[in-house]
Design a protein that fits this description.
By secondary structure, the protein is an alpha/beta fold. The protein has 17 helices and 10 strands. Helix 4 runs antiparallel to helix 10. The model has no long low-confidence stretch (mean pLDDT 96). The structure holds flavin mononucleotide (FMN). Flavin mononucleotide binds next to helix 1 and strand 4.
């Protein structure tokens, strides 16, 4: 087969991910592999996409080979997906088999894979295999064996001529443009400051939603338009930020100032984005990737966060999951999420107003919602990586994690360890085993009942 590898790394040839597809090329010499550094050359693809599309047309199999970048693909790879659709060229991909191969540290790799699967299936491709490699897997013989087995199965499936059926739902069209009503009754901002960031161009529905929030909030609010914000380029994956959280772009454009000054000053942060394909725009993604100047540290601790979204978010469960992940990781509280899905100005206005009120109220009482699996699981992945292999070059993260007690490994819980060791020994004695098992449900609620009892007897107990 002629196999075309579409590389998603901004590092081009120096991509870790491409080492995995090259390994497959070595193990399966009967197939002809060709690489294109799509993300690294997206600026030239903006001018000339034709050559690449000709290669796609000739290919028997297309491999989307990409690194994870903030729950998704890199902004430049995202831009490539947009270009194909803007120029109505997706028919070149239709009817072809696709493989997805990602490398990462497995922090929300599933959302990136789901995004690329959705895009490939939207273009009429059949996804014959999905592989999520840890970035260092290739050095382990067991992982090489696994990848080789994947290749054998996936290439056979791709060559069979039978395309697997699609697993993602087609994305719904969206043509609604919100236009606000005049004269909003203001929310009392109680001295709080709001930062509103949008990728909505003037005249778009999402821009109008962002501006509406600003008007309602009154007081101290600032709107950052990502279309006007100077951005020299996307994250280059150079990891210089790992040492001291200084981005290689420095203050040569406007991104660092938004994260370092405007975001830090704000009490309420509003992200106002329009859905573009299955995510936000590549412009928004460029800004989001550059958030990595704070590497693996939360950058919105204690802030209230509001999302304003234009588009059918309820049909994009994957994107909804990314929103939760991002905010649970950022340390902020997702106070409200408003979309223009009601397609009704008055209802959307009410929802925006409700969001502003909710954010103020949550801030007043200092509410932070507990994290779900997205935040709890993700924090454990980072904790273990920064403690271990990634301590260098992520020196600044290690410092932060130590200072903020992020190294909460279970092996430090001596009391719990002693108790479970004792119980594990005692359970071998039949009489004790019977007694424990009979009363297991009671054992589990006993400590909670004790708390309730102390509150009942002294209601002042926190
Ligand atoms: C800015 C940035 C963002 C990243 N985001 C994620 C992420 O969300 N999840 C993850 O597991 N790994 C993430 N990574 C790790 C890379 O995906 C991983 O190192 C990958 O193997 C790099 O491959 P490449 O050399 O082909 O670019 C990120 C790395 C960088 C530099």
């Amino acid at each position: 087969m002629k196999i075309l590898v579409l590389g998603g790394s901004p590092k081009g040839e120096a991509s870790i991910t491409l080492r995995y597809t090259r390994f497959l090329g070595m193990r399966f010499p009967e197939h002809r592999f060709e690489e294109v550094y799509v993300a690294a050359s997206v600026r030239s693809l903006e001018k000339n996409l034709g050559e690449l599309i000709a290669k796609v047309r000739e290919a028997d199999l297309v491999v989307f080979a990409f690194p994870l970048y903030v729950c998704l693909v890199h902004a430049a790879y995202k831009r490539f997906f947009e270009l194909v659709e803007e120029r109505a060229l997706s028919s070149a991909f239709a009817g072809k088999p696709a493989l997805l191969l990602a490398t990462s540290i497995h922090w929300h790799d599933h959302t990136a894979l789901e995004y690329v699967r959705g895009m490939a299936e939207d273009w009429g491709m059949g996804v014959c295999g999905v592989y999520s490699a840890g970035m260092d897997d290739l050095v382990k013989a067991s992982e090489r064996n696994r990848l080789e087995a994947f290749g054998r199965l996936a290439f056979r499936r791709a060559a069979s001529g039978e395309l697997p059926r699609r697993e993602t739902a087609p994305r719904p069209d969206w043509d609604y443009v919100y236009a606000p009503q005049a004269g909003p009754a203001r929310v009392d901002p109680r001295g709080l400051r709001a930062l509103i960031v949008t990728d909505g161009a003037p005249g778009s529905g999402i821009r109008a939603m962002a501006e509406r929030f600003g008007e309602l909030f009154g007081g101290d609010s600032e709107l950052v338009d990502l279309n006007a914000l100077p951005m020299k380029g996307g994250c280059q994956g150079c990891i210089q930020c790992g040492l001291d959280n200084r981005c290689t772009y420095g203050d040569s454009d406007g991104v660092q100032a938004v994260y370092r000054e405007k975001l830090r000053r704000a009490d309420i942060v509003v992200w106002a984005y329009g859905i573009r394909d299955r995510y936000w725009s590549a412009r928004a993604k460029t800004f989001i990737d550059r958030r990595f100047l704070d590497t693996h540290q939360p950058n919105a601790v204690g802030k209230q966060v509001v999302y304003l979204v234009s588009g059918p978010l309820s049909a994009h469960a994957n994107l909804r999951q990314i929103i939760s992940t991002m905010e649970e990781f950022s340390g902020g509280n997702l106070a409200a999420l408003v979309t223009d899905e009601p397609r009704d100005t008055a209802a959307i206005d009410r929802a925006i107003r409700g969001a502003a009120e909710c954010a103020v109220e949550c801030h007043q009482v200092g509410y932070q919602a507990p994290r779900t699996f997205a935040g709890v699981g993700g924090a454990k992945v980072f904790r273990d990586e920064i403690w271990g292999k990634l301590r260098f070059p992520f020196v600044a993260d290690h410092r932060y994690y130590k200072a903020h007690h992020f190294y909460d490994f279970p092996q430090k819980e001596w009391g719990a360890r002693l108790k479970t060791t004792l119980l594990r020994a005692l359970v071998h004695i039949p009489a004790i085993r019977r007694a424990i098992l009979v009363d297991m449900k009671r054992h589990m609620v006993r400590p909670l009942d004790r708390v309730l009892e102390s509150i009942r007897t002294s209601p002042g107990t926190p």
